[in-house]
From TrEMBL, chains A, B:
Region of interest called Disordered, as start-end residue ranges on this chain: 1-25
Protein's recorded name: Glycoside hydrolase 123 catalytic domain-containing protein
Domain Glycoside hydrolase 123 catalytic: from-to ranges: 380-601
Superkingdom of origin organism: Eukaryota
InterPro entries, A to Z: GH123_cat (IPR025150)
């Protein structure tokens, strides 16, 4: 301490308040009469609202264990047909009532959402519940829970969030649908004595019943006295079993208890209301978002051999599961120097499964492999020619693209692309080759500075690339550079400009890294729409670190920001199901793609300038460093569509 | 992006590695042959080491859910008799094997620690296990678990820590004690099918058995055919029940399964070794550490009325539980302007309980109330005189002190202390009055600057205070100021210098706030010993925010750093027990007090300068901003005692 210290620095280290010292009782206002809660708390006799906080949070909130309670308000959502809308319901114990290391167990239940005309959004089908589970301490994994009723353990001092998704079918009648989300504090199963105390107790019951059976099993031809004797013995045994503590929960002083005596009036009831608009989101997304799935990761983690029947099954499971997110998956195997083998169907073009995959109306684009995915008799070149000839004859050919190299960096790599593209265009002049890049060749500069060289890549690669797919990282916060990039693209030659994100850009720019804000995740797609790209690529959705057991702990790869290249998790880590577990970030990707459909509809009516104007007017997205952190502007934008 | 950007800024956003992109497989070295783990994982057939990481961490580590695994090494601890030594055992799942939202369940078991001569440190008595539970996301609460065997749920991607405490009795023979900590991955109870799937399934079984009983119950006098018929019917029912899925776990193709076939060889065994030294820590701590317990908080939270039988019980429970931490509790009620009523025994001085409390050899100091704690017939003044007369006649009187006011700030408050102290000294000239302060009176400056004024407080208060208890915050990182403070104290008049911490000092200085490092918590006591204070005060150990339910969520008070004034939690929040739940920080307080005994022993042999020298030599504590963040120097210091 400096002797010349000013008096202000000598502030009291503790401020006093009467009644217990230092601001004791400031929270008093929220204390109600808790006289019901003296002693052991029986949740079947106390309103659940005395035991838990329940409140809603928007889907763009990251609701972690430390989230503090808010007031409970009814939920009103708006959705188009063929849209998924999400809301989170947060639950936090006010007290502990279980007597175990849990604070307690709550039963959560969701009803169907019904319209006055009797139409329904059925729970388990259109309405789904998932628990938000932290990854590296950040809320991310959405683990399915039982529907319509499930039990959740709550921990003292921790908030748990339930992610509620409502998928509105394309044919759903418009109107308002109402339902309820019900939270009821309960005893644990053990406390209900619905279960045996332990295995040996159950074994004891089993043995007694077996003995009983042995006694009365073979009575045919036995003398009457023996039959009676045996029946009496069995009676005694049965009576003993039934009166044992194992079944004591079915007795009370007034005889057997009613199984269904739980007082539903004690529950916390949250009204869920969804208005379905007279507008159907297109089945095929307007903006193709192509997302890589590492086949190597699938092969290693699930122990399926490349080309085996199990391998085809595993890939198909991934493909079909991802389609619900309105993205267009491509499988991917990395070669040397970032050469990539990409393919949307693991089967050859003439296989019925390929037709099924490519024709799916939800698929907006598919990758065609340059060489055989699974070794076959043909030479690679013959293979390519045959594949292309088959695919060109199909109506889905317009979705096809070739993705040959990830981020070429030098002349040799650029030349490899030119060479492969020449082969492709020899068989199909209208084939689309996609190239991702963020710079020109480092060993033959196209211009005196990097950005100028980057701009010249289309001129340099033409006609060997049709989809110029550039890193958003290059643009940084200089949205004005977009017009320079677009000026180099020739739409009249069917050229397109797409973008991608990966390690970069980093915070505060939109990306899908773990730990970013919810609106930051969703803004990836807002950015694409505002900048005017006509497609989007993401390098990996399952690129966790290597493991050889399906349920192995998920580790992110060294050198990558957490969550980069990972948009879902193997189901086996969290459940007994093989169904993948989505991340919050994948849901926000879908929400962003849906937002694009809203913006596109609005622009189709009033023009793109008006579409851009509502981004500004609502404050939803103004630029890569200026977008909303709050959810309201999103609903405002969506409400603007009429 | 700036066009003049240098090439270095244009670094590749993704680095490529063959085989799956971006550093895939870097962790490969740790992958063993996991062929055992294909498909559904049966923990009873796989070494647990394939399923979980187990490793040790020192007691000064804050082991949170994100703690990464280390290699498993045997534990060797050193402890004196009458000392508590702690170690943490961390467990993290490598894979999920439960098929539920848990990764899996592990059974943990600790054996007694035994010496070759047959002496024991018995688990459950000398060896205790507690689970480390985060508070506000920071590992802090130590929740007791069952001993010697317990089951722990592990979550995917999260580390769980078990706090192992070994209390060495004063009479324990010296020598080496060996034991084991055993971790076994197991099926959950539900998977063992020890339990019914749900209550309705069990009810079904119950009803079938009841019907069966009804059928065979009353057969006396019935015709033979009917008896046989009834027995057959019962047989059918019983057979159906026994073959139902409820009991399927007792069958296999080879007949009923052996209940006890778990292979103990699959467990992970961690050797625990403790060497008990030929040195007994004093029963009465050398340094009195007096710690406040808010009676108001106890009254509100546990619903006990001041002065009722339950109130005395609650206070006694707290007093006795805290004594194990070698601290000297005082109960405390705040009045206006930080006037405090402090008392170590809620009973009058002539009550046998007061004698029991004050005579406890573990108690180093006790607070005597200035006025009646529970209203009695006497006038306050008569009360004081009577109390003092009784206590002065006791041998424990040397432990007594009066603590009248918390941090007087102006002349009126200083005068109040003088007035009360005069009363006390009138009846007992040798009574010790303790005053906490960090400044002189603000309305009558004792010197031109704050620190000079602070230094003059002893001269100003003399003879009305004997224990000058100053905030460590005043000293800051200027350890050299300590000599100025001590120069004002007159030990020849039985004056003492004590210190305290509360809101301040803050990081990086030693204190007990949540989120500080483990060595920072433990260093509070190292600092006291180095600075030469002869006692220590802490304002509150249970000063959470107001609540009126014992198991209510713990909230820290507004305006205080998290954890300030809170060293333990109500047991009801985490367990069905009333026994308080200690914080890590309380354990580190105890460890720090034990460290003082080591330093004192060393200094008693070689002199205080040598004692100070080992602080420096080991790097354990050099000053409030220079102390070890690593555990090793602590064990080095403790090893120096010979």
């Amino acid at each position: 301490m400096n002797n010349s210290e000013s008096p202000q620095e000598m502030v009291p280290p503790v401020e006093g308040v009467a009644g217990g010292g230092t601001a004791y009782g400031w929270d008093d206002g929220s204390l109600q009469d808790q006289s019901l809660l003296r002693g052991t708390i029986d949740p079947s006799r106390v309103p659940s609202s005395e035991l838990v906080h329940v409140w809603c949070m928007p889907s763009t909130a990251n609701v972690g264990p430390q989230e503090t309670p808010r007031s409970l308000e009814p939920v009103s959502l708006l959705a188009a047909r063929n849209e998924r809308e999400n809301i989170q319901i947060a639950i936090r114990p006010k007290v502990s009532w279980s007597g175990s290391s849990n604070a307690g167990v709550v039963q959560i239940q969701c009803t169907d959402l019904c319209s006055t005309s009797g139409d329904r959004l059925v729970v388990g089908q259109s309405v789904k519940l998932r628990r938000v589970v932290p990854i590296l301490g950040v809320p991310d994994a959405l683990v399915p829970i039982d529907m319509p009723v499930s039990q959740i353990n709550l921990l003292p001092g921790e908030t748990t969030a339930i992610w509620v998704s409502i998928d509105v079918p394309s044919t759903q009648p418009t109107g308002q649908y109402d339902g309820e989300f019900v939270v009821t504090a309960t005893k644990t199963d053990a406390e209900c004595a619905a279960q045996f105390h332990d295995k040996s107790e159950k074994y004891q019951v089993y043995r007694e019943l077996r003995n009983c059976l042995d006694v009365i099993e073979q009575i045919d031809g036995k003398p009457n006295e023996e039959v009676v004797e045996r029946a009496k013995s069995a009676t005694t045994t049965l009576r003993r079993v039934l009166l044992s503590p194992s079944f004591s929960d079915f007795f009370s002083e007034n005889g057997p208890l009613d199984m269904m005596d739980e007082d539903a009036n004690l529950s916390i009831r949250l009204k869920l209301s969804l208005t379905v608009w007279d507008f159907v989101l297109p089945t095929t997304p307007s903006l193709p978002a192509v997302i890589g799935i590492s086949d190597t990761v699938i092969e290693d983690r699930f122990g399926v051999e490349h080309g085996s029947a199990e391998w085809y099954d595993a890939l198909e499971l991934h493909f079909k599961w991802l389609l619900q997110y309105k993205i267009s998956p491509y499988f991917c195997k990395w070669g040397n120097s970032m050469r990539v083998l990409t393919y949307t169907s693991p089967w050859p073009a003439d296989h019925p499964k390929s037709d099924e995959f490519f024709s799916d109306p939800r698929l907006a684009a598919y990758a065609v492999p340059y060489s055989p995915v699974v070794p076959c008799g043909d030479l690679a070149k013959d293979y390519l020619q045959k594949e292309v000839e088959i695919l060109r004859s199909k109506s889905h050919w317009k979705k096809a693209y070739f993705y040959l190299w990830d981020e070429p960096l030098n002349m040799q790599q650029y030349d490899a692309i030119r060479h492969q593209a020449s082969d492709i265009h020899a068989y199909a002049p209208d084939a689309r080759v996609l190239t991702t890049y963020y710079s020109g060749p480092s060993d033959a500069p196209l211009a005196p500075n990097n950005f100028e060289a980057f701009l010249k890549v289309p001129g340099f690669l033409r006609p060997h690339t049709q989809i110029y797919c550039t890193s958003e990282w290059v643009i940084g916060n200089r949205e004005d550079l977009v017009k320079d990039i677009i000026a180099e693209i020739k739409p009249e030659n069917n050229e397109e400009w797409w973008t991608y994100v990966c390690m970069g850009p980093s915070d505060p720019h939109p990306n899908w890294h773990l730990g970013m804000r919810g609106t930051q995740h969703r803004a990836v797609m807002w950015r694409v729409w505002k900048e005017g790209g006509t497609g989007f690529l993401y390098w990996g959705a399952n690129c966790y670190e290597k493991a050889t057991v399906a349920s192995a702990e998920i580790k992110f790869r060294r050198g990558l920001p957490p969550g980069d290249g990972v948009l879902f998790y193997p189901g086996e880590v969290f459940t007994s199901s093989r169904e993948p577990v989505a991340s919050l970030r994948l849901e926000r990707l879908l929400s962003g793609l849906q937002d694009i459909e809203y913006l596109k509809l609005y622009s189709s009516r009033y023009g793109r300038d008006e579409g851009l104007a509502i981004l500004e007017k609502t404050g939803m997205y103004l630029g890569p460093e200026r977008y909303t952190m709050d959810h309201n502007p999103i609903d405002m934008m969506r409400g603007e569509r009429f």
